[in-house]
Predict the structure.
Amino acid sequence: MSASVTETGKAGLGAVVTGIDLERPTTEDGDALRRAFRASPMLCIRAGKATPESFLGLARVFGTLQRELMGVLRDPVFPEISLIERRRGVSTATGKAATFGGHWHTDDSYMAVPCAATLLYGEVVPPSGGDTAFTNMHAAYDALPAKTKERIADLSAIHTYQSRRNVSPVVERTEEEKALTPPVTHPLVRTHPETGRKALYLNPNRIDRVCGMALADGDSLLDELIAHATRPAFVHVHAWRPDDIVIWDNRCTMHKASPHEGDHPRRLLRILIEGTVPV
């Protein structure tokens, strides 16, 4: 059986791929997955139960794997895999009851070279709740008024691990990890290195300020752009099933996790794909 794209979600996101044998993927499967991912920068792969080895093998279809920076998240056997877990209503990453990643963000923007893509494997998912919402930043950029595009064309922002605007619990860094993650500057509009399309590049949790603007003015602009980018027209919500593998392109999407009721455990395995400096 070969890979088949069977559904398309909302806002140009959420295509579903079936027919992949995780233990024996073919060259044709890899080609089909990459084509589907270019068409839908958030993709769901339904291929049954995965092992860490088969999950890693699938991730390599999309690029070079990135070692997890945060030691508290890193799998002790497979350093490219992060463990995102919630037990008894508390995130094991932060020790907080608040949902980990529960506000809009894009992964790794506080890094000088952010990851290109993220894969999550739903090893244990709750029977209800815990959905993940995604927003299409290509579509959001395209829908901006021409005057706004002109205004933000050459603007950049400071991204930092613990920004003054952050509203989500974050993992505590070691001193070594802090040294590896100083504040960085990225453009508000980035060009996708593979497609050439422009996208808003925002991270409400990591952007500290807009370069060259007074804080109040920069905050007003960021609030305006974030509100625009998260309008329902640009958003697709993924309802997790057990063993779903979801991949999204951090260069042109944002995402956020939804809370789930009760004490049902949730365990996700995460792999990051190496990226390039945003331009």
In short: Residues 215-229 form the longest helix (15 residues).
